[in-house]
Every structure is written in structure tokens, then in C-alpha cells.
């Protein structure tokens, strides 16, 4: 996503940058930090003896956090004056080989790159080849975005994000995996208009720094990556850093993870971006530590001077800010304070990586930390801030601060907090997911996972955010300094959205970065870059505005519709997102092409044997559901060709469960009747051979949606059921966020898309089933497991062999 981090504590939810690469060696000046073999086989730099107590505290904290948040790899470096006093890695670079992350692990550092691009420009400013305040067209005559404000765009504005330029270029943007040239990326900006008048409004722009990099390239007559290697990285002594990394450096990049709110994880993409100056650098934490030392030495690198001290001072001055301002956007640096001390910093967030570089220039203390999991910038920022506090305490010979960690909320407490709360017109939604509490403020980009902190206080702590606290005060909840009163339960389900909105709702874009257009309380929302949900304001037919704050402040989404009114494309902030084709989205049956003919799959499965199990099990007592309650409806897709294999796998349309599960399901069915709904069952007990057919016939990339026959499934034990609801008054099935057996993100029970009504119906079904001892499967909203499923053996009897009459 490539943006900048705040530099004040406590850590807010941050929007940061994304991208980087090269190799590592220590200079003579830093010889005291020579590598040693650290604990658990990690290559560790240092620590100096007096830093040992501090590193023990940080190590325990980081190890807790990477376990808690599922981070594959994380590395850190601490800087005191002109040397790295400690650096080490945590986790693994490669899960398959078990290769550990080390101090030498290479990370894509995203928008941390911007500091280096801007330093390159400042070098040319020092030589008189560039002026920060000259119109940029003086250096790029072909740069002609539409500017109706009468104020020319300058390098100073571009470097401090005050140019008014769009966030992303139309080509070479954050989503663009075609890796166009920098020239093509910058040229595409001529298709855009300035969002704000230059010098009036801070608006973070990757396009702006891409333009700065192109100026650097044109003026130096060298590719910008080669120029920065020679002019910035080599003088600084950064031998494991590059904008154009060789294979040996790429081999040390960890396998990074992408994830979504609804629970899907997948490998991070690795394609280079067209706007490379804004975030394409790769580096190690010791190399970033060497960069911090150069800053502390007034621009003097270990091999040569990089920049004058006066140039650094200008870069650290908040631009377009009142005299004496201590916080704002400098040139390439975020400027702020940490506990009253001057701080310069920048964060980076690129696919699968989160980085924070922070320095206290007056104290000559700094830290660089990077994690190989998408969106973890609140955590890397917190680690950096806490490391600096520890270093300050150590220097003053004070007792080291205690780093408090959070813990899960109890299931009882989570459920007791769930509900809707209001303070005037603002609604606070609290959801309980097992022992997880999720807080959402309607109408805002605000979704946070709360964990237990101290006493009865919960605190936001999910890697994306940290710091907002919540506690109960009488019959109200206190959150963000406001008191919210609980709204009585039992409110009517939301209405279906207006037809004009329905044609816009859906998924757009790429597998690696999906734009979700959804409806919430009658209003269109955009969930973009996986974690940022914005309420949209209609400007005209098919044109909606992003809010005045956030990643895309001041920009719009324009929809292109077909003749039926259904959108085929969403142009978000100038970036075209094509509607994604989802099999079954129109209400049809989701289908795949089986890897082998169904008859062959069946023959092979019937010839195979289920896995042998040992232990104590209950005797099976399968009960036919409709014999317990005839108002339970059946739609047994696997007895017809209306299923994902497009062929019958059952010879009878019947549904069975073990008696305790069946009786619990009947109770859930009758619970729902009070709200006008009944249960519609798609499948219950499933013979093992059918599970094997599904597994063998389904491509590996969709195995999340079918059970592994070597383990058996809960369906095989008669302890799982697939179902939905039907309306009692019409007998028609309800419409959920996705269709039955649909192998897509829409099937996840936490899928954020669709409409308010669809999500409310999905939640109604889930609550009714959970109240009777069922739990939903993490990838299928329709699949529920009874809590006693483990007490039964895997079964392989066909329905006709069960000996149960109709």
C-alpha cells in the first residue's frame, strides 16, 4: 500500500508503505558488532554487554508477539550513536527447510524507500542541479497532470506529500502486477487531475515519489536504482540493500504472508512495482541501522559523505507547517515526538511486509524492525517505540520499563459484551467470535480486535492497530473517550438495499488485492487493500466519493455498468478494477471440472479403505432429520447433478446425524421459527468414500473447501451438517453472502462483502446453531460441527445400507 507512519506513541492504526532488496557486510567502524551465533541458532549481532538486560526484555516480548500474531519472520536492529549494538532474527525465512530468520534476513521495506529517493534529490539540490521550489515541469516538461489551481507543483510539495497529486498513478500503481517502466508510470499521471491545490493539503501520494524518482533519473542520466546505489547506499555502507536486487539477495527474503479479515491466508506476491522510487527497496535491519548511524553523524557515511547536515535539518523540518511545529511531514521523513523527544521516522507496508525505521536524533538512538506478514505496521511501530524507551531508560540507568502483553478475552466475557451500542448518532458494534472481541464504528474506517489488557480493560491489539481501550462502566461501554449505551436486542433485520446499489455490490480487481464493494446500513462501502473500509458518498449516478481522510482522501470511485445495471468495472482513485467473475454469484450452482471423471473417482474411492482409528468411541446412532421434525426441509444437492462435481454421488436424498447432534439441530430449527425461519439441510452424515471422491476430484488450490480423507471428515462421523435457512412464510431459501459449496472468499463466515441483510441472516443462523452446541467451519458459512463429533468413528456406510426405513 506504500504510505507513511505516524511517529508519536501510542501506536495508532497506521497506513504505511510497501516494497525492497541486496547483501551484508560490516565496516571497520562497526567491527565491535561482528556476527556471533545467538540463542536458538540465530545469527545475532551483539549485544554489547550493557545491552544484554534490554535485549532479553525485547526478545521475550517479540517472541510472544510473533507467536500471538502468526508472523513467520521478524528481524530487528538497535542503533546507539554510530553502531548497531544488537540485531537478530526471529521465526523462519523458509518454512519448508526450517531455515531461521537472522540479522541478515532481507525484507521488502516498502515506503522506507522514500527517504532514500528524497536523499538522492537533496544531493542534486546541494550541487545546484535541482531546486526544491522550482516548478517540476522545469525538469520534466512532459509532466502535465490537469492543474486548475494556478499554482505549479514543486519538488518540495511532492517530497512532503503536499502536491495535491493522486495517491496512485493509473499505470504502475500498487495493484499493477505488470511491472511497467518508471517512465510509463509517470507518463500515466497526465491522465489525472490534481485532487487539491498544491501546498494546501497533506495527501500521501506514491505517485508523487515516483515522479521525484523520475526527476532524479532524468537529471542524473542514470536509472534511479543505479544512481541511488552509487550515491546513497554505497557511501552509507549498505551492502545488503538494493532497489534492483541480485538473486543472492532475493534468496534471503522470507516467505511472507497475506491475510484477510475473513481468515484466508496466502503467499505474498513478489512482483516489482512501476512506482519503484516510492517503495521498491530491499534491505536488512543492520543495513538500515547503518543508515540511521549516517543520520546521527550528520550525513557522513562509513565510506563517504552522503549529505550535508544542513540538508538533513531541512528534511527533518515539518513542511507547510507553522513556525515551531514539532510534528508533520518533512522531506522524506515523518517528523514527530516520542515522550517529548524529537523523532524522525518512516514506515513501510508492501505485500506481506511491514517495516518501521525510527530515530531520536538528539539522543542518537535508533531502531529498525521488519515483519514478514502483511499489515503488521502497528506491531512494528510498537516494537520500535518500546525499544527506544528501553534504550533511553538504559542510558539513564533507570529501571527498564515492563512491556505488557495482551491475552485473549474469555468466551463468557466476549459474549457478554456483544451487541450494538450508541452515543447519539454514532453506533458501536461489538461482535464476539469465540474468545475474540471485534469492535466496529459504523460509518468509519474503524475495525479493531480487542484483547485483555489490565484489570477489566480491553485494548486494541491485532497487528493493524494498538492502543484504543474499552471497558464497561455500569450499563455503558467506554471506548475512545466516549460512552456508548447498549441498544436493546431484537431489532428487525436490515432491509435489502436499493436496486441501484445491488448492481454495484461485488468483488473487483486481482487475486492478490481485491476491492470489495459492499452495503452497510443502506450505504455503499469500499473495502480496499484488504484492511481499509470506507463509507462512500454518492456524488452522481455511479460516482461515489471517498471520505476526506484515509488512504484515498478527496478521490472517487466511478462505476461502469452494463445494460442490466450491473457494474462491470470500478475505477477507484483512477485505478481500473474489473469485476471479478465468481462462479455461482448469480445464484447458480458452483461447479468445477473434476480432475478425473466422476465414475472413476467413485470406483477408486469405493475400492479404498478409511483410515484405521484407535481409541474409545461411542456407538453410532444415526437419526434421519426429517423423522424428528418434518418441517426441516431438505435440498440434498449430492443426490442430483446440482453440485460442484455436476454428478450425483448419493443414490438417495436423505440427511442423517448422530442422535445428540440431530436433536440439537431440531432445537436450533425451532429457535429460528420464532423469527420466521426454518432450516434447509444440504448434507449431514457423509460416507467416507464420498469424502475421498471430493478430495481426489478437486484441484489442490481449493482443498480448503473439501476434507482430507486421510484424516476423515466430521461429516463421516455424523457430527457435521451443511445447511441454510428458508423463510417460513414463502418457503423460499434465504440469500446469503455466497452460495452453497461455492469455493470462493464469499463462503467464509467472516466474509465482509455482500449486503447488511445477507450478513445479518448469516449471523442469525450462526447464533442459533452455536446456542445448541455447534460451531461454524472457518471457510464455509453453511458448515456446522457438533461439539461431540470426536466421539464417533469414521463411517463409510451408504445411505441404502444404514438399515433405516424412511
Count helical runs: 17
Mean pLDDT: 92
Sequence stretches where pLDDT stays below 50 over 5 or more residues? 4-42
Structural class: alpha+beta
Helix content: 10-25%
The overall strand count is 38
Overall geometric form: globular
Spatial sequence of strands, sheet with the most strands: 5-4-3-14-13-12-11-10
The portion of residues forming beta strands comes to 15-25%
The first-to-last residue Cα distance is 58 Å
Radius of gyration based on Cα positions: 29 Å
Largest beta-sheet details:
8 strands, antiparallel
Tell me what the structure shows.
The protein has 806 residues and is α+β, with helices and mostly antiparallel strands. The chain is 22% helix and 24% strand. It contains 17 helices and 38 strands. It has an eight-stranded antiparallel sheet, with helices on both faces. α1 runs antiparallel to α10 (377-395) and α2 packs across α5 (206-220). The longest helix is centred in the middle third of the chain and has 19 residues, at 377-395. The chain is globular, with a radius of gyration of 29 Å.
Features:
alpha+beta, 806 residues, single chain, 38 strands, eight-stranded antiparallel β-sheet, 24% strand
Fold topology:
Blueprint: E1 35-37, E2 43-45, H1 52-69, E3 73-80, E4 83-94, E5 99-100, E6 107-108, H2 113-126, H3 155-159, H4 182-187, H5 206-220, H6 224-236, H7 247-250, E7 257-259, E8 265-267, E9 282-283, H8 285-296, H9 309-315, E10 328-329, E11 334-338, E12 341-350, E13 353-360, E14 365-371, H10 377-395, H11 411-417, E15 419-423, E16 426-433, E17 436-441, E18 447-452, E19 458-461, E20 466-473, E21 476-479, E22 482-486, H12 499-502, E23 506-510, E24 513-520, E25 523-528, E26 532-535, E27 537-540, E28 543-545, E29 556-561, E30 567-572, E31 575-578, H13 598-607, E32 622-624, H14 625-628, E33 633-634, E34 656-658, H15 659-673, E35 677-683, H16 688-697, E36 720-727, H17 756-770, E37 774-777, E38 780-786
Parallel strand pairs: 33-35
Antiparallel strand pairs: 1-2, 3-4, 3-14, 4-5, 6-9, 7-8, 10-11, 11-12, 12-13, 13-14, 15-16, 15-22, 16-17, 17-18, 18-19, 19-20, 20-21, 21-22, 23-24, 24-25, 25-26, 27-28, 28-29, 29-30, 30-31, 32-34, 35-36, 36-38, 37-38
Helix pairs in contact: 1-10, 2-5, 2-6, 13-16, 15-17
Amino acid at each position: 500500500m506504500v504510505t507513511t507512519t505516524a511517529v508519536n506513541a501510542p501506536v495508532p492504526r497506521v497506513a504505511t508503505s510497501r516494497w525492497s532488496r541486496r547483501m551484508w557486510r560490516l565496516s571497520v567502524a562497526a567491527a565491535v558488532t561482528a556476527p556471533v551465533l545467538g540463542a536458538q541458532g540465530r545469527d545475532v549481532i551483539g549485544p554489547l554487554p550493557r545491552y544484554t538486560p534490554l535485549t532479553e526484555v525485547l526478545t521475550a516480548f517479540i517472541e510472544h508477539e510473533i507467536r500471538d500474531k502468526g508472523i513467520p519472520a521478524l528481524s530487528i536492529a538497535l542503533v546507539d550513536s554510530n553502531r548497531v549494538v544488537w540485531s537478530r532474527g526471529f521465526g523462519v525465512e523458509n518454512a519448508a527447510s526450517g531455515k531461521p530468520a537472522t540479522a541478515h534476513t532481507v525484507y521488502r521495506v516498502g515506503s522506507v524507500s522514500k527517504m532514500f529517493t528524497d536523499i538522492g534529490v537533496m544531493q542534486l539540490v546541494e550541487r545546484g542541479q535541482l531546486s526544491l521550489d522550482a516548478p517540476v515541469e522545469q525538469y520534466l516538461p512532459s509532466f502535465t497532470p490537469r492543474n486548475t489551481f494556478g499554482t505549479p507543483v514543486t519538488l518540495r510539495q511532492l517530497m512532503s506529500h503536499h502536491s495535491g497529486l493522486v495517491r496512485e498513478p493509473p499505470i504502475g500503481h500498487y495493484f499493477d502486477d505488470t511491472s511497467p517502466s518508471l517512465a510509463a508510470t509517470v507518463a500515466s499521471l497526465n491522465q489525472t487531475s490534481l485532487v487539491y491545490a498544491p501546498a494546501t493539503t497533506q495527501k500521501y501520494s506514491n505517485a508523487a515519489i515516483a515522479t521525484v524518482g523520475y526527476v532524479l533519473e532524468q537529471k542524473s542520466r542514470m536509472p534511479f536504482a543505479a544512481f541511488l546505489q552509487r550515491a546513497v547506499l554505497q557511501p552509507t555502507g549498505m551492502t545488503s540493500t538494493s532497489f534492483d536486487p541480485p538473486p543472492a539477495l532475493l534468496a534471503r527474503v522470507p516467505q511472507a504472508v497475506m491475510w484477510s479479515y475473513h481468515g484466508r491466508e496466502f503467499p505474498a506476491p513478489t512482483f516489482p512495482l512501476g512506482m519503484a522510487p516510492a517503495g521498491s527497496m530491499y534491505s536488512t535491519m543492520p543495513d538500515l541501522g547503518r543508515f540511521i548511524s549516517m543520520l546521527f553523524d550528520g550525513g557522513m557515511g562509513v565510506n563517504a559523505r552522503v549529505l550535508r547536515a544542513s540538508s538533513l535539518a531541512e528534511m527533518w523540518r515539518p513542511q507547510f507547517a507553522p513556525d515551531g511545529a514539532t510534528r508533520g511531514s518533512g522531506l522524506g521523513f515523518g517528523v514527530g515526538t516520542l515522550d517529548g523527544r524529537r523523532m524522525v521516522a518512516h514506515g513501510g507496508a508492501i505485500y506481506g511486509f511491514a517495516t518501521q525505521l525510527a530515530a531520536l536524533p538528539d539522543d542518537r538512538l535508533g531502531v529498525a524492525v521488519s515483519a514478514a506478514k502483511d499489515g503488521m505496521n502497528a506491531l512494528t511501530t510498537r516494537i520500535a517505540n518500546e525499544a527506544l524507551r528501553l534504550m533511553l531508560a538504559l542510558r539513564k540507568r533507570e529501571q527498564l520499563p515492563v512491556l505488557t502483553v495482551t491475552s485473549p478475552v474469555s468466551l463468557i466475557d466476549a459474549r457478554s459484551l456483544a451487541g450494538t451500542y450508541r452515543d447519539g448518532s454514532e453506533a458501536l458494534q461489538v461482535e464476539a467470535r469465540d474468545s475474540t472481541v471485534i469492535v466496529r464504528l459504523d460509518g468509519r474506517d474503524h475495525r479493531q480486535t480487542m484483547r485483555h489488557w489490565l484489570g477489566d480493560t480491553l485494548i486494541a491489539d491485532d497487528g493493524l492497530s494498538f492502543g484504543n481501550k474499552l471497558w464497561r462502566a455500569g450499563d455503558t461501554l467506554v471506548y475512545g473517550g466516549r460512552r456508548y449505551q447498549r441498544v436493546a436486542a431484537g431489532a428487525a433485520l436490515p432491509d435489502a438495499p436499493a436496486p441501484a446499489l445491488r448492481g454495484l455490490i461485488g468483488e473487483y480487481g486481482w487475486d492478490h488485492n481485491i476491492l470489495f464493494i459492499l452495503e452497510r446500513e443502506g450505504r455503499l462501502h469500499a473495502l480496499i487493500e484488504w484492511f481499509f473500509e470506507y463509507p462512500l458518498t454518492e456524488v452522481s449516478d455511479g460516482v461515489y466519493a471517498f471520505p476526506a481522510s484515509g488512504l484515498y482522501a478527496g478521490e472517487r470511485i466511478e462505476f461502469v455498468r452494463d445494460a442490466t445495471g450491473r457494474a462491470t468495472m470500478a475505477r477507484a482513485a483512477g485505478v481500473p478494477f474489473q469485476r471479478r467473475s465468481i462462479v455461482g454469484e448469480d445464484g447458480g450452482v458452483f461447479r468445477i471440472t473434476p480432475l478425473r471423471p466422476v465414475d472413476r473417482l467413485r470406483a477408486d474411492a469405493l475400492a479404498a479403505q478409511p483410515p484405521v482409528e484407535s481409541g474409545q468411541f461411542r456407538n453410532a446412532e444415526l437419526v434421519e432429520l426429517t423423522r424428528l421434525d418434518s418441517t426441516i426441509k431438505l435440498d440434498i444437492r449430492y443426490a442430483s447433478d446440482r453440485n460442484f462435481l455436476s454428478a450425483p454421488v448419493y443414490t438417495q436424498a436423505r440427511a442423517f446425524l448422530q442422535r445428540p447432534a440431530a436433536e440439537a439441530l431440531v432445537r436450533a430449527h425451532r429457535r429460528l421459527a420464532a423469527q420466521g425461519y426454518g432450516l434447509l439441510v444440504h448434507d449431514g452424515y457423509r460416507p467416507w468414500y464420498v469424502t475421498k471422491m471430493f478430495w481426489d476430484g478437486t484441484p489442490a488450490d481449493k482443498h480448503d473447501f473439501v476434507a482430507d480423507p486421510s484424516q476423515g471428515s466430521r461429516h463421516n462421523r455424523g457430527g457435521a451438517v451443511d445447511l441454510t435457512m428458508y423463510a417460513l412464510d414463502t418457503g423460499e431459501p434465504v440469500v446469503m453472502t455466497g452460495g452453497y459449496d461455492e469455493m470462493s472468499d464469499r463462503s467464509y463466515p467472516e466474509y465482509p462483502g455482500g449486503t447488511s441483510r445477507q450478513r445479518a441472516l448469516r449471523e442469525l443462523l450462526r447464533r442459533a446453531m452455536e446456542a445448541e452446541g455447534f460451531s461454524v467451519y472457518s471457510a464455509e458459512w453453511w458448515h456446522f460441527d457438533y461439539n461431540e463429533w470426536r466421539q464417533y468413528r469414521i463411517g463409510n456406510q451408504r445411505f441404502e445400507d444404514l438399515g433405516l426405513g424412511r
